Amino acid sequence: MSxxxxxxxxxxSVDLLVYVFFVVLAVGLVxxxxxxxxxxxxxPLFMFLGILVGPVLGxxxxxxxxxxxxxxxxxGLVMILFTEGHTLSWKMLKRNFKTILALDTIGLLLTAxxxxxxxxxxxxxxxxxxxxxxxxxxxxxxxxxxxxxRQYSVREDIETVIVTESIFNDPxxxxxxxxxxxxxxxxASSARFLEAIAGYIGLYPAAVVFFLYQMxxxxxxxxxxxxxxxxxxxxxxxRDFPEIVIFSLVMAFGGFxxxxxxxxxxxxxxxxxxxxxxxxxxxxxDDISVVKKVMLAVEREVHxxxxxxxxxTIFIFTLLGASLxxxxxxGHIVQGVIIAFALMLVARPLASLPVLKWRSFKExxxxxxxxxxxxxxxxxxxxxxxxxxxxxxxxxxxxGETILSVTIITVLVTVLVETLWVPVLRRELxxxxxxxxxxxxxxxxxxx
Length: 448
Description:
Na+/H+ antiporter like fold; Cation/H_exchanger_TM; two-stranded antiparallel ribbon; 22 helices; Sodium:proton antiporter
């Protein structure tokens, strides 16, 4: 069911791709139905059913699932972040700015150092190797959190803090990984941009400059693209299907490409574009007739985007599960689980301590205990091993295999544990309106 192209690259046939899409969508449908019936999170169901149809039953080829995952993770994450940008309240972002900034800078750095030190001690490797692992695993995952918080109706201000942290910590994680790679493999192509800056001002100042550039350039491009998108909706008749669907895709992927071409964060550009469009009433002061026209278009756009984001989530986590190599995981299962719980119960809470300056202790606990890892760490997990093979570095190959397996285990454990305890943490740590409490006592659950 596949053909080989002239370049000796295995190209899946149309029939095979249709088969994969059918299996993944069937997994998604079953997971959603089970989730609704038993009121459990559907994210771990996607992953475990993906493992079932992949490595266990062999219904999906693991290598093909991994190849498709590398493409779909980009498409899916762009749509998820662009969609979530629309729903993030600018008022809430401003109100929680200090908390978000602390988590995305001090919090992420502390997480990388703490879990990197634990990794280095547990596996007896140099600290810079542990730091590389910490940078890879440092970013929390919006693809996991967004549908989860929607499902359990987590308070808007808390959702805004955690989801926005997840969105904005990707660039920082990439910078930290680039610094570690530059120190381990200076000749690596992924480190060349940072190395070029470091040639003038040194490695660590270059890391700061690189991070500030990524954040600043991405936010600026996203804001400008949002203004362009608003004026298109304002001055044209783009507000009905299918025009609004095409407009949405052009904005999302145009923003991503613009950011990547500028060596910034394409994901952040797409997110900021969504924020501007979703909060157009705040940023643009127009006549009521114009506001209503744009609002109608944005509402239809979001309706389409939410459906596509859900489908993207199904594909991301099902293919991630189907692409896992059981052999790699088996070799480090005990150490991997130790690292995962150290991340959840030690590194993340310690790194989140600055939040106590602005939040209550219970809110701090909820925020510190909700940081599952997912798409971004999974995507970066193979980087050290790839670099070791590319540059014929035996030490990096050995370290890379360990980092790959422990990262995948950590993703699995954090997604499973931190999705399953969301309803409990929400009930015990967050204030719930009295009417919701009475409904829950009567047996009602959100989205049940």
